[in-house]
Specification:
About 40% of the residues lie in helices and about 15% in strands. With about 300 residues, the chain is of the alpha/beta class. It folds into two domains: about 5-170, Rossmann fold (3-Layer(aba) Sandwich); about 190-295, Diaminopimelate Epimerase, Chain A, domain 1 (Roll). The strands form two sheets. A six-stranded mixed beta sheet has the order 6-7-8-9-11-10, sandwiched between helices. It has a five-stranded parallel beta sheet with strand order 2-1-3-4-5. Helix 8 links the parallel strand 7 (about 205-210) and strand 8 (about 230-235). Helix 1 runs parallel beside helix 4. The termini are far apart.
Length: about 300
């Protein structure tokens, strides 16, 4: 399938990662395609979503800020277009099959660049939103506003966030500013009362929380000096992994078949709430890091 044959009225399915960056990818696509359905996915369920999709309902299926793990998913139809930035997806890169894996930029920036180049348009109304997504997702943190918009993502959820920022307007409302001020106060209180569980052999820790996942991880890395922080969302059971130093944690998680991500940030799922499996996963990760990164040892 040649993507250039698609029109603004083509029937499009957008399957994108469930986070600030991933949903911004779907916003980019929705700013060009008018007949589009958006679904959010995780690294672990993207293949099952593709498997259940009736491909005849769509002219193209975009998978953004994520990638299928099973060859059967990509072989199901030639209508699939993958736009991903995680290093682990380099193994499936194939421009002839519309599978693009480019690191160094977030998924939203990759998607915007691809849409603009492919259809010879400019989506300049999305410049700031995509800039903030890139800043936050790659853990650059040059723009304070990127943290705020990520906080709003977790407040709104994927559907409401998509609606709120569809036109690219990142000027925060009075309500949003007040919400964020209150959240800063809540964060300080939450951080002061954390239950931190340290790993036995490496300079890393695990923290179960219900909110402020990324901010807590960032503070534990920068202020408390951990090499790696695993933060579990008490609601979704998803494990977010954040690191500092010379490591590609996304590739490590992919190598261990636990999950995925990029250099400084990754994650994996524990939806079944299986504590025995979670302990085994943590031990597998700890052993690998202890064996391969001596400076991480206690």
């Amino acid at each position: 399938m040649n993507p250039k044959t698609l029109t603004r009225d083509s029937r499009i399915l957008s399957i994108s990662h469930w986070d600030f960056d991933g949903v911004t990818c779907s916003i980019v696509l929705s700013n060009y395609f008018r007949n589009i359905k958006c679904i959010s996915c995780t690294f672990t369920n993207v293949d099952s979503i593709i498997e259940k999709t009736n491909v005849s309902d769509y002219d193209a299926i975009f998978i953004t800020d994520c990638y299928p793990k099973q060859a059967e998913s990509l072989d199901k139809t030639d209508k699939i277009i993958v736009l991903d930035h995680h290093p682990a997806s380099q193994s499936i890169f194939n421009a002839d099959r519309n599978i693009y894996s480019i690191d160094g930029v977030c998924g939203a920036l990759l998607t915007k660049n691809w849409v603009e180049a492919t259809y010879n348009i400019k989506l300049s109304n999305l410049d700031n939103l995509v800039r903030y997504a890139n800043d936050y997702d790659l853990w650059i943190h040059n723009w304070h506003k990127s943290r705020f918009i990520n906080e709003l993502f977790w407040k709104y959820g994927d559907t409401k966030f998509r609606m709120r920022f569809m036109n690219g307007d990142v000027k925060l409302t009075k309500w949003e500013l007040n919400f964020l001020r209150e959240r800063r106060k809540e964060f300080a209180e939450t951080y002061d009362n954390l239950n931190v569980f340290e790993f036995g052999t490496i300079n890393a820790c695990f923290v179960p929380v219900t909110q402020f996942l990324n901010d807590i991880a960032d503070a534990l890395l920068s202020k408390d000096g951990y090499k790696m922080v695993l933060v579990q969302n008490a609601r979704s059971k998803h494990i977010s992994v954040r690191c500092r130093g010379d490591i590609d944690i996304g590739n490590v998680l992919d190598t261990l078949q636990l999950g995925g991500g990029h250099a400084s940030a990754g994650g994996f799922s524990n939806k079944e709430s299986n504590m025995d499996k979670l302990k085994l996963d943590f031990k597998k990760l700890e052993t690998y890091l202890y064996d391969n990164y001596p400076d991480w040892r206690k």
